[in-house]
What does this fold into?
Amino acid sequence: MKNFILLFLVIAFLTSFIPRETTNTWIRINLLGYKPTNTKVAVWCSKDTSALKNFELVDASTNKIVLTENAGKAFGSYGPFAQTYRLNFSSFKKAGKYYLQAGSVKSGNCIKQITENTSFP
It folds into this structure.
């Protein structure tokens, strides 16, 4: 048992020095999903003052870009973020599973389904 605890402590100590990727930019989406004919907006936010030119909507099953849009005007700082943009992809009307990406930032592991059956509380 002592050897197991010692091994566990050594592994925990060694893995504590593995560099972790730090993220300063996120895309926040509606976690309930979007209806095809409704307004569809996400928020790009960054802790630095980077500028965003455009963003893409990507089909989750094929990883193909289905829509590229101009990011529009910057909305400036908000809360802990130095820069924000509203990403409007309302022009896209096809139901399916998609994610947003802007540069190297994706809307996380949360893939949204655009469907008429999306319900809101």
